[in-house]
Please model this.
Amino acid sequence: MNQESFKLVVVSAGTSDPSSTRMLADRTAERAVALAARRGNAVTVRVIDLRELSADISTALTSPLVTPKLQQAIAVLGEADGIIAAAPVYQAGPSGLFTSFFQVLDNDLLIAKPVVLAATAGTARHALVADQAMRPMFAYLRTMTAPTSLFAAPEDWSDPALATRIDRASLELVLLMESGFARAIKDQSWPSYQHEYGSAASAETAIDLDTDLMRLAAGGSAEA
Model:
């Protein structure tokens, strides 16, 4: 069997240094590299650290401007064969930095790409955030999310069950990358999709604000 090469991109929204979110993503990436090697394939890993892009993401959310730094990160993501998307949990949901980044992407950029979802929090109360809050967002982006999601609270790092879940999610990611489905979509039907950037600014410009309904919604009155 010929060796295949895959590009794996880690997207981490961790803001501390060191970051438990980044640690969880890195451990998953390391296992994916090792498991792919056992199967005769090579995986290279690149990291998008969102804390270094916070100002660029904010600019893209509030204007049509995509900075060169953000555009480079988007290009890296577009070339990915697989993604590990990791977020810290704030107030029962993934961080605003994490969600904002994915909201400014081309709506079809990640179509069919395999993704492992990972979340970290200070308490096990947030254990379902990856499945209840993150998975729907990636379903909207039409990615191929791995069946196994990852979550780590402080007590989980010493629990062998976390390593087992990381192994399972990593293998699922490798198998999804090896399937070649995302590459086939991009090669054979990519032009058939509508490509639009999803920033708040571009979404607002698509709405006609000068209508009776919108004036009423804003607290005004409809014209006679």
Remarks:
- The mean pLDDT is 89.
